[in-house]
Design brief:
sterol biosynthesis; single chain; lipid biosynthesis; 8 helices; four-stranded antiparallel sheet; steroid biosynthesis; GHMP_kinase_C_sf; lyase; binds adenosine-5'-diphosphate; alpha+beta; binds ligand DP6; binds cobalt (II) ion
Length: 358
């Protein structure tokens, strides 16, 4: 029997608190601004990808959730696969002439997301991170997470951050070749373990405008984006990094909500305008704002921070001690959605993850 060359890897999504929205180089996926996210650590939002190399395969093929997804020549999937094959050849095969020439075999890749794909829950982030990790494992590549971050970035920008856990910054970089545009860990999750992320699935429909095309339209038409990338994001990156290192939830919450608002404002400032949030999204914002107002009035500071990616689904960051109360609050306003709220960050006793209970 011939040897089977196969590897499986899984990666979680990350949800940005300083949003990436805009490319200065669309081919290499170099961003117009740095960004910062939290990688979720529970199992609700993950991509799991298995890659297999075999001399009998006739073409590189990807199945996403059981359906074949075209690998376009020169496209993002092809770029990642080609680069990983090149590294296999340049390292393992070059150093050991007896190593199997996996770089010359076609690959079959099967990936599953355990949550809605292309619905604004960062499936491209976990998807490309898992794809790159699985091929790197298949090829036994002796490379650092930084190298994998650079490759994943060329699949989907946000994917470069999912190679790390905890609080992660994607530094925009200055080199035109993208060699310094990669993610670094600002702090591991263990640094601030009582920060939780409540995922509120408002809709699992595929979004109308993909992140890729939406952000390009914004770059081409929005004057507000220019102000954002020059005058706003650099200071926010510094301030939120400091807030994370100091476990200052008030500052973390203020900046997170302000940045989500500004991202959706630049989407609206795009020609034609892009709307990612819907009425339920806006109602959740109103609930969080009121909840914080009461808490601030009681001298207790901010208790919750909402953020929305390119879709209507809310992510609420909060300290563990307040999570149950927030779930009760959200579910009381949207009882028909009971079960659609999951706490996705933080360490729980096994099987004791907090699901929405009215
Ligand atoms: P999202 O908000 O879910 O990230 P995007 O518009 O950024 O939505 O990207 C969605 C696209 O990402 C999908 O249409 C698909 O091409 C790609 N993608 C999603 N999941 C995976 C995966 N597991 N493996 C490979 N590619 C994926
Ligand atoms: C709103 O990384 O999905 O989620 O690089 O074109 O694949 P491409 O876009 P993508 O954009 C993510 C946008 C965002 C904000 C963020 O994750 O930082
Ligand atoms: Co995406």
């Amino acid at each position: 029997m011939s040897t089977v060359y196969q590897a499986t890897a899984s990666a979680p999504v990350n949800i940005a608190v300083i949003k990436y929205w805009g490319k200065r180089d669309t081919k290499l996926i170099l961003p117009t601004n740095s960004s910062l996210s939290v990688t979720l650590d529970q199992d609700h939002l993950r991509s799991t990808t298995t890659s297999r190399a075999d001399p009998s395969f006739v073409k590189d093929t990807l199945w996403l959730n059981g359906k074949e997804d075209e690998i376009k020549p020169g496209g993002r999937l092809a770029t990642c696969i080609t680069e990983l094959k090149r590294l296999r050849q340049a390292t393992v095969e070059n150093e050991d002439p007896t190593a199997p020439k996996l770089s010359t075999y076609k690959v079959h890749i099967a990936s599953y997301n355990n949550f809605p794909t292309a619905a604004g829950l960062a499936s491209s982030a976990s998807g490309f991170a898992a794809l790159v990790a699985s091929l790197a494992q298949l090829y036994a590549l002796p490379v650092s997470p930084s190298t994998l971050s650079i490759i994943a970035r060329q699949g989907s920008g946000s994917a470069c951050r999912s190679l790390y856990g905890g609080f992660v910054a994607w530094q925009e970089g200055v080199h035109p070749d993208g060699s310094d545009s990669l993610a670094i860990q600002v702090a591991p999750q263990s640094h601030w373990p009582n920060i939780h992320a409540l995922i509120c699935v408002v809709s699992d429909d595929k979004k109308g405008t993909s992140s890729t095309s939406g952000m390009q339209l914004t770059v081409d038409t929005s004057p507000l984006l220019q102000h954002r990338i020059k005058a706003v994001v650099p200071q926010r990156m510094k301030d939120i990094s400091k807030a994370i290192l100091e476990k200052d939830f008030d500052t973390f919450a203020r900046i997170t909500m302000a940045d989500s608002n500004q991202f959706h404002a630049v989407a609206l400032d795009t020609e034609p305008p892009i709307f990612y949030m819907n009425d339920v999204s806006r109602a959740i914002i109103a609930v969080v704002v009121e909840y914080n107002r009461l808490s601030l009035a009681n001298g207790q500071g901010y208790k919750a921070a909402y953020t929305y990616d390119a879709g209507p689904n809310a992510v609420i960051y909060a300290e563990e001690k307040n999570i149950k109360e927030i779930i009760q609050l959200v579910v009381s306003f949207f009882p028909q959605r009971e079960g659609a709220f999951k706490d996705n960050l933080g360490v729980f006793p096994p099987g004791a993850e907090v699901n929405a209970q009215a």
